[in-house]
Design a protein that fits this description.
alpha/beta, Rossmann fold, five-stranded parallel sheet, Na+/H+ antiporter like fold, transmembrane helix, ion transport, 27 helices, four-stranded antiparallel sheet, elongated, 7% strand, 629 residues
Length: 629
């Protein structure tokens, strides 16, 4: 039996990784291959029976997994940032959540004949969308930047809000199911334990991080261990209060001043990817296919209410007073796929409610999975065509992601922004990010290859990457990561390999792509030129001012960087021998080129003055010697 459990855990790990890879390769939400894998392993082929294999360990595994998922989601709920993402996002995660919850609750009560308590719980479970489902869809659809930003941030913010709402409703149902207690008294006690203990431990954990009471290498593991310990303690004090405790704990930690939790979020997301993948395969394998089919027309009618009534009503109500066009609202109305959080939380609640003997608990999981399957499959297959029909696609992605927010990158970004080219700077250095923010340049602080970046870094409208950083060890990782995402021909890097020892040499295929702005251009060279007063300047190359005239004015030291032609951005990766007219050239002008331009201007001015004097003298009439003046 032990060998069977060990083998099955190993198989689950391999399958979860394979499903994540399939989702990444096909640019689909990973939930689709995970769902198919779980259904095949469970009801389809009867290879995986989680209840038989894990036995009494199944509930603790799911319970701890859901606790980690809710805590990780709560860490992203920073109240100050919600308003910063626009009025529409704020409306959707507040008023929109209530509208969706009310519509789904009412439809569930009348269509599925659920009691109001269970209808409220189901409605709360399926109000969440989630970034793990939305982000892959946005990458393949590529809608306008504004719409992509709304959908992405709605998914990020509503994840913990919906989970907290579901936890509160579940707490009420769990208390009301026990006839031996007074409902209000027990519910108040449970809320007091959950909110009080969560707020206290969240604050104490924040102090531990702020005062560096844990060494750096223990911080992530320490936070995870403390969180799981608090979850267990909370459940021991008051049964079923643990999920509320860890959710509140994460929210408090996310909103404390003066602490940096970016490393914790990145660690939790890395852990959550594997945890969610394994958990979802297990949950899908437990799904009773007969129960799913037995939902009948009522289940399909409820799915129709979720997709065609609740979501459009929420979007159009929340869009009142915003600048969104009608087509924008119709597109947002179609984009609300449900995700893994709904599946995980509903499965846990269903197990607990079945133990308590609550009527209808056995239908919660099949119904949630029906909503997940319907929204993800239908919207994944149709959203791209819908976006094109509504004319809300972003079109060709001319924007740049620049890794490295140095002085050079910031100056280049400012010039490109003035030409309506989207630019985002990413860097691990907070000082560089801070200076870029002061210049109103969009930024991402952190590692652009992290799971956090995949959810939070806005890649809408960005089609190429420039690696312009001094981080020799990280540059190749960033390059390879975005070659897979954008394509090999869309990633450019500087030749920073000067003087590198043989043991630190990179592969020939990688080195061959280090030709950004020319094969002899390195980060050190750019930094040196900028420190000596080099400028980044835009110049129109026309019939009257050709590229030869440009070279005559600025000399060979001028370094062409990019040029814009007919609204399209082109990047130099070699020598610029001859450029046609009708382009806008953006180049780096060292101090020598600026001095030469001044001398050239003075020379031209002097020649013009001499020519004017000559023309003036030739045009004056000759005076007769006999004429008296």
């Amino acid at each position: 039996m032990v060998e069977q459990i060990t083998a099955m855990l190993g198989l689950l790990g391999v399958l979860s990784l394979f499903c994540q890879w399939i989702g990444w390769k096909l640019r689909l939400p990973a939930i689709l291959p995970l769902l198919i894998c779980g259904l095949l392993m469970g009801p389809g082929l009867n290879i995986l029976d989680p209840d038989a294999i894990f036995g009494d360990l199944l509930f603790p595994i799911i319970s701890l997994g859901v606790a980690v998922i809710l805590f990780e989601g709560a860490l992203t709920l920073n109240f100050k940032e919600i308003k910063g993402h626009g009025r529409m996002v704020t409306n959707l995660v507040t008023l929109g959540t209530l509208i969706t919850w009310a519509c789904i609750t009412t439809a569930t009560h009348f269509l599925m004949d659920f009691k109001w308590e269970m209808s409220l719980l189901f409605g709360a479970l399926v109000v969440v969308t989630g970034p793990t489902v939305i982000v892959p869809m946005l990458r393949s659809i590529r809608p306008k930047s504004e719409l992509a930003s709304i959908l992405r941030w709605e998914g990020i913010v509503i994840d913990p809000i919906g989970a907290l709402l579901a936890v509160l409703v579940f707490e009420y149902i769990a208390v009301a199911a026990d006839p031996t207690v007074h409902v209000l008294h027990a519910l108040g006690y449970m809320l007091g334990i959950g909110v009080g203990l969560g707020a206290l431990t969240g604050y104490l954990m924040g102090l531990i991080i702020k005062k560096h009471l844990l060494p750096h290498y223990l911080k992530n593991a320490g936070v995870l261990t403390i969180m799981l310990g608090v979850f267990v303690v909370s459940n021991l004090i008051q049964e079923e209060s643990g999920l509320l405790t860890v959710t509140v704990m994460g929210i408090v930690l996310a909103n404390m001043r003066g602490i940096d939790i970016s490393d914790i979020i990145e660690f939790k997301e890395t852990l959550t990817v594997l945890l969610i993948s394994v958990l979802f395969i297990i949950l899908a394998a437990r799904l009773d296919s007969d129960a799913l089919l037995n939902l009948g027309w009522q289940g399909l009618a409820l799915l129709a209410v979720v997709m065609f009534i609740a979501r459009p009503l929420s979007v159009w109500t929340c869009g009142i007073g915003t600048t969104l066009r009608r087509n924008d609202k119709w597109f947002l109305s179609w984009m609300a796929p449900r995700g893994i959080v709904a599946a995980a939380v509903s499965s846990l609640f269903a197990i607990k409610l079945e133990i308590l003997g609550v009527p209808g608990a056995e239908l919660i999981v099949p119904l949630v999975f029906l909503i997940i399957i319907g929204t993800v499959v239908v919207q994944s297959l149709t959203a791209g065509a819908w976006a094109k029909y509504l004319n809300v696609s972003a079109g060709s992605s001319q924007g740049l992601l620049i890794f490295g927010a140095s002085v050079f990158s910031r100056e280049l970004a400012k010039v490109l922004k003035s030409k309506n080219i989207k630019v985002t700077l990413a860097d691990n250095n907070w000082d560089n990010i801070r200076l870029a923010r002061m210049d109103n340049i969009p930024v991402y602080f952190g590692n652009p290859t992290s799971e956090h970046a995949s959810n939070f870094l806005d890649m809408t409208g960005i089609g190429r990457l420039l690696v312009v950083s001094p981080y020799r060890q990280l540059n190749p990782l960033v390059s390879f990561h975005y070659q897979d995402l954008l394509g090999k021909s869309k990633v450019y890097g500087l030749n920073n390999n000067e003087g590198t020892s043989a043991r630190h040499q990179m592969s020939e295929s990688y080195l061959a792509r280090l030709c950004l702005f020319g094969e002899s251009v390195s980060y050190a060279k750019l930094a040196s030129l900028m420190s000596k007063g080099a400028l980044i300047k835009s110049t129109n190359i026309t019939d009257s001012f050709s590229f030869d005239n440009f070279l005559a004015r600025y000399g060979e030291s001028a370094m062409p960087l990019v040029y814009i032609k007919a609204g399209k951005l082109n990047i130099f990766t070699g020598s610029a021998d001859k450029l046609a007219s009708g382009i806008e050239l953006i180049s780096l002008l060292p101090i020598e080129a600026q001095q030469l331009a001044k001398e050239h201007s003075l020379l031209l001015a002097s020649k013009a003055a001499e020519q004017l004097a000559l023309e003036t003298s030739e045009s004056e009439p000759a005076l007769d010697d006999n004429v008296k003046v």
